[in-house]
Amino acid sequence: MSGRSFAFSCRKSIDNTIYNDKNTHVNQKLYNRNGELSVNESRFYAISHDFRGAEDIPFVRSDSEYTSVRCHYENNPWCEIPFLFPTKDRLNERNVRVRTVDERLKFKNPLKLLGISKKHGVDQTDGQGTIEYSFSVIGTGQISAYIIPDATWLITNTSVTAPPDPQENMFLYFTCSTPSNVCEWIFRITIKKTTKSPSDDKPLLVGISSHHLHGADMQSESIKNMIAKIEENRVHSPEWTVTASAWNVDQVYKYF
């Protein structure tokens, strides 16, 4: 197995390229700080990279179940949207709509996010507390990770890259190639306290999206039906001449 990983911070993009529509069917498991599963749903995200927004997509406009995105975690800059790459600053509120769907995705190899270790320390330069984490993620060959400390912590280091300055959050991306499309990614994150105030026992939120971009698990029946509807209607109406990329995603968010 060969793999590559990349790191990004959540800062404004200057690339104004227009992309086609992205549609993802997502199994979404969101845990609270006590380790309890607070959201366990299957959702369909319609993401338009066109300036006209998601409401211009015919199957979104005609379906009242599609709504604006409401963030589950108040400090999550990605708002649980299953971004493949860190392109959120290309989008406005009008570009994304979401709805729950009845079809529950059944992956042959479900996503696994495990905390391997958690070591408390002290920064010798200023006496502030630090925590070094080690994680294991088992998923597909295309994995996006969203690293989000609490407000009184900053990311100072990762095994992917050492940020030039402490970061409020980071987007990490891992890609690899195996015949089974199953990969394990082990990485480390170090965060540092910025104040002397008391902190929660679990100050780090980690989100993982495992993207099924090929293979038998790539598209659900909901996605296939959507594509069939587009192909059927584009013959008769120019408003249906959309080019939609669509795939399944297995997503989990946990506190550590």
From TrEMBL:
Origin: domain of life: Eukaryota
Domain Endoplasmic reticulum metallopeptidase 1-like C-terminal residue range list: 24-243
InterPro entries in alphabetical order: ERMP1-like_C
UniProt family annotation: Belongs to the peptidase M28 family.
Name of this chain's protein: Endoplasmic reticulum metallopeptidase 1-like C-terminal domain-containing protein
Source organism: Caenorhabditis japonica
